[in-house]
Amino acid sequence: MSKTCFLIGAPVDSGKRRSGCLMGPDAYRTAGLAEALTGLGHQVRDLGNLAPAPHPADTPEATVFARNQSIGWTQSLAKVARETMPQGLPVFLGGDHSLSLGSVTGVADYAASVGRPLFVLWLDAHTDFHTPQTSDSGNLHGTPVGYFTGRDGFEGFPKVTNPVPEENVCMIGLRSVDTPERLALEASAIHRHDMRDIDESGIAGPLARFLDRVSNANGLLHVSLDVDFLDPSVAPAVGTTVPGGATVREGHLVCEMLHDSGLMTSLDLVELNPFLDERGRTAHLMVDLCASALGRRVFDRPTRSYS
């Protein structure tokens, strides 16, 4: 089924101290994302790169890194999410994962306005369930799930008027979770599947059960795909590498199942740092996964040589 896909550049680099993710949106464009989607019959509207809403300057000595800039990004991303959701499928091109502070809350506001529940599929090595108070690093890319599910501790950020219920969140691919996050997660209703679950039982079962819940609730589905969901041997362009991630085949299976379900209504592509890539291989893989989620079949994949 043809969709109108909005490509929304979010060169967010305020969620952590290692710079480079601000180049992510243009790397996706260079890797042919728009061409891949139009080739599948979709209409593509590239809205260019956003900027954060006006915000006070951050101080270098602050405990939380670039807090004010992240608040500005949250405001601008939530606004464009609310505006584009009624018109098609927004694809947020990151940018670090703090962009989901805005993309998910904006999508949640839209879902509430049409009386439908929002579900979130979090494909990531990390839970990102911290708050600014619990994060040892002070990096806000580790906090978006905590924010959009309504955890306390986000003073100064826009009020989350439509928090995503914890039971509507499913995390797949976890393999780096610190003690405060683990304790908070165990006390929550979030569905989570680490790589041991995947190794023992496969990736299709947990995803199929989650998609059934979304379908049965007539829900909207936001998918947030972090580069580090994948193993760094196949996707090196990320500053938070954790060995033992999903294979290329597992990544494509997830995305093919998302397309088959017809449930995905918005998408994040995050944490791509082209400065760390090898001849664009990670950007090309992420474009291929996005194409799989929007209809490319196994026999349609291009052959690439990086030699």
Description:
It is a single chain. The protein is an alpha/beta fold and 307 residues long. It has one domain: Arginase, Chain A, CATH 3.40.800.10. The chain is built from ten helices and eight strands. Strand 7, helix 9 and strand 8 (264-270) form a beta-alpha-beta unit. The longest helix has 18 residues, at 67-84. It is globular and about 50 Å long. The model has no long low-confidence stretch (mean pLDDT 95).
Secondary-structure blueprint:
Elements: E1 4-10, H1 24-30, H2 33-39, E2 43-49, H3 67-84, E3 89-94, H4 100-113, E4 118-123, H5 144-148, E5 169-174, H6 179-186, E6 191-194, H7 195-201, H8 204-216, E7 220-226, H9 248-261, E8 264-270, H10 281-293
Parallel strand pairs: 1-2, 1-3, 3-8, 4-5, 4-7, 5-6, 7-8
Helix pairs in contact: 3-4, 8-9, 9-10
What is the fold named in CATH at topology level?
Arginase, Chain A
| CATH secondary-structure class | Alpha Beta
Number of strands: 8
Work out the count of structural domains. 1
Overall pLDDT level: 95
* Proportion of residues in extended strands: 15-25%
Tally of contiguous helical segments: 10
- Derived from helix and strand composition plus strand pairing, the structural class reads alpha/beta
Note poorly predicted spans.
Answer: none
Radius of gyration: 18 Å
Task: List the main descriptive attributes of the protein structure presented here.
single chain, 307 residues, alpha/beta, Arginase, Chain A, eight-stranded parallel sheet, globular
